[in-house]
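One-letter codes give the sequence; the fold follows as tokens. An example follows:
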Amino acid sequence: MNFEAITIKDIATALGLSVSTVSKALSDSYEISEKTKKIVIEYAEEHNYRPNPIAKSLKQGNSKSIGIVVSTIDNQFFSQVINGIESIAYSKGYNVIITQTHESFELEALNVKHLTYRSVDGILISLSTETSDVEHLKSLHKKGLPIVFFDRISEEINTHKVIADNFNGAFEGTQHLLDSGYKRIAHITSSPDISITRERLKGYTKALEDRGIAFNEDYVKYCMHGGRDLDEIKSALNDLLTIENRPDAIFTASDRITTTTLLLLQQMKVKIPDEIALLGFTNTQLADALNPSLSTIYQPGFEIGKNAIEMLISIIESKRPVTEFETRVLPTQLYIRNSSSPAKRD
């Protein structure tokens, strides 16, 4: 399945110019007026032009490169996803180009643009916490660029998606805290704009509802940059620790938020779990080595990566347009450790 790319000849025909004029305009030649350059460049960008031989390779569908867009590669979850992607991509003869958004929508859009300029055959993407508008992806998808979402997805684009069972993971994690005797369970999470935040919040609230515990919005704190901004987590914790009937447990909803919350609580001399229990989503391999050992909800990052790349390659190599898509939901796993043990009560 080939991604539609236009040529210099296409631009020349559309604008009523010669191929030579268009070529010189795109090369910023002094022979061409600024007005003409502006017209040509704007049309080229709007219609996804890229210089040969890239356009040629795209039309032939043989660039054999895959673009990956993640928040940061130092996140254990995304590192595992990338390992899963590479385990399949290289065996199928594809190279991968990895980009990081650092939770910035602007950088995400720029990375996607640069990946298309580098002739990728398709893109695997997990949206940034700032992304609420996916027009930059819609336009490329409509032109035929294969795109597969993983982890943080958009429902606005009809394509393959691979996610963890965020609802059930959050439900089981919150249920475990309730079973351990905790009643006032706070939830520190990411931006409400991203899919994993909504899914995990639903699992958390459902577990409370099933036990007859009223949802308390004061116990829910949003970190708009997914934990990348340390001050956001500090602010969330300060709010929770100073409110009346402060929480006796905290459920955190992302890798960076979970590990940072543990560190900050220790710096604040809060005893875990005696004063506040802690459980969260994280794929850190150090959970057992931390003090206390950290109760976690583990996502199958490697398997998510494998599934995502297999689905993307199936679109790329399809002889016909792909019109039927699926969302694969992979199970999470709850690991119970010391940070959520029942606290000693007087």
User: Anything to note?
Assistant: Residues 195-210 form the longest helix (16 residues).
